[in-house]
Write a structure and sequence with these properties.
With 288 residues, this protein is of the alpha/beta class. It has one domain: Alkaline Phosphatase, subunit A, CATH 3.40.720.10. Helix content is 24%, strand content 20%. The chain has eight helices and eleven strands. It has helices at 2-10, 64-72, 86-95, 117-120, 161-164, 194-209, 212-215, 257-268; strands at residues 16-21, 24-29, 44-50, 74-80, 125-129, 165-167, 178-182, 219-225, 235-241, 249-251, 255-256. Helix 1 (2-10) packs across helix 2 and helix 3 runs parallel beside helix 8 (257-268). The radius of gyration is 18 Å and the shape is globular. The two termini are 34 Å apart. The relative contact order is 0.22. Residues 1-30 have low confidence and may be disordered.
């Protein structure tokens, strides 16, 4: 059943050709979003941040679309979140440090006056946050979790936050250099099954791949989890999707959330923040 589900999901990625995966013959795209050997110039980075699922999701029968992306593009197999619970990971991803946070407190409890990837880009960023009631909303409500929206914690962004931290709507606005996409607490797999999040990705990711930025070979998409399912290793999968990424490549370099920050800052030509300076980069291994 898993193999059949994977084959179905792969239909969303292009024309199919056979390949053997997990003991069965399924299909992968003959013309996929990755594996292009042409010249690239990446100046757009998109993150999709999911919630609380470990590396085992890569083989889950409930996540056929994520399986198809791993077959078509790249997967970091030894990536690790830096803390529990959620908020320290979001802060680490965007500032290079947990900033001493050890809980999931609201922005009113953690007023951060430190640089972030948002402040580095001086307005050339967007957070697209699903189910957020109002722009730059600093209060958790319904299916919106402020702790999954790191921009609202940084005091230096207060003057411009309402212009750049907005609800997720269609068509997707991918025009700025950096875009963080935060699903709501159901679609990010936090409060709903893995299958729900996988179906959400099946709707959203193709829109990114069809965007003018991706089609012009200027956009890199990363999909990762804030933390795993409370296991001590905190190992998470990270998908790397860009035209130049070799099809089906799996990279076993030890990465962390600081690696994703370093890679993104390097691609966008801004200074490295905090622990990103000493983290392994994904640029070379994934041919970015």
């Amino acid at each position: 059943m898993w193999v059949a589900g994977l084959a179905t999901a792969l239909l969303f990625l292009g024309t199919l050709s056979p390949v053997t995966i997990a003991g069965g013959t399924v299909s992968i795209p003959a013309s996929s979003p990755c594996g292009d050997e042409g010249q690239m110039h990446y100046n757009h980075v998109v993150w999709i941040l999911l919630e609380n699922v470990g590396y085992s999701v890569t083989d889950s029968p409930s996540a056929p679309y994520l399986g198809s992306l791993a077959a078509a593009c790249g997967l970091a197999t030894q990536d690790y979140a830096v803390s529990h619970p959620s908020l320290p990971n979001y802060v680490a991803l965007t500032s290079g440090s947990t900033q001493g946070i050890t809980d999931d407190g609201e922005p009113s409890a953690h007023r951060l006056s430190v640089p972030s990837i948002f402040s580095e880009l001086k307005g050339n960023w967007t957070s697209l946050v699903e189910s957020m009631p109002s722009r730059c909303d600093r209060v958790t409500s319904g299916e919106y979790a402020a702790r999954h929206n790191p921009a609202v914690y940084y005091q230096g962004l207060s003057a411009t936050c309402s212009r750049h931290d907005v609800a997720l709507t269609l068509p997707l606005d991918l025009t700025r250099a950096f875009t963080l996409v935060a699903p709501n607490v159901c679609n990010d797999m936090h409060s709903c099954p893995v299958a729900t999040g996988d179906r959400w990705l099946r709707r959203i990711v193709p829109l990114i791949l069809k965007s003018s930025q991706y089609q012009s070979r200027s956009l890199v998409l990363f999909i990762t989890f804030d933390e795993n399912d409370a296991q001590s290793s905190n190992r998470v999968p990270t998908w790397v999707i860009a035209p130049s990424v070799p099809r089906g490549v799996r990279v076993g370099v030890r990465y962390s959330h600081y690696s994703l920050l370093r890679t993104s800052e390097s691609l966008l030509h801004v200074p490295l923040l905090g622990n990103a300076r000493g983290a392994a980069s994904m640029v070379g291994p994934f041919n970015l």
